Amino acid sequence: MVDHKLLKEVSFFNDFTDGEISTIATIIKKQEFKTGDTIFKESEDGKTMYIIRRGEVKACKTAPDGELFTLTLMKDGDIFGEMSFLDGRPRSASIVAISEVDTYVIDKDDFETLVDGNPRLTYKLLRNIVFTIHSIVRGMNSRYIEMINYMWGRKRGT
Q1: Is 31 within 8 Å of 105 (Cβ atoms)?
Q2: Mind listing the domains of the chain with CATH numbers?
Q3: What is the C-alpha to C-alpha distance for residues 98 and 85, in angstroms, rounded to an integer?
């Protein structure tokens, strides 16, 4: 069990009450990684979600030549692994520690034990996960529009 006072320091849990933090602390585990550690690989099965307490990781896709292509960087308070956690599909990217990283880990089976008895807590967790995914999609949409505008601008100038 994780000290609930430490959980309150993580932005992902900002809107949780003390009671909710105490409840979620019973299923969260701590896990540490060293710089360069691969936390998980693209296409692996996964049923865990990670919340970064301290440190930085990068999400990567493997290019056809085997080289890792960095998609994004994540830091304190960010989450990763949430997609497989929610949908049970294989991991969509590899996650590599680019510094010493302390994480909190929630296993899907442990999470599901909370669902029936803690609907408000479940709602808050899922809402925060959705907000994170929504933020990622908005960022991707903005980058896509910038790319399209750049490409259209180049075509018009030729």
Answers
A1: yes
A2: 4-157 (2.60.120.10)
A3: 23
pLDDT(155) > 70? no
Give the H/E segment covering residue 151: helix 119-157
Residues 48, 52: Cα–Cα separation, whole Å: 13
- For the cut 90, the answer to whether the pLDDT of residue 56 exceeds it is yes
How do residues 101-113 score in pLDDT, each as one tens digit? 999 999 999 999 8
Strand residue runs (E) in the chain: 28-33, 38-40, 48-54, 57-62, 68-74, 79-80, 94-97, 101-107
In order of 32, 55, 76, 96, 103, the CA distances from 35 in angstroms are: 10, 9, 15, 8, 13
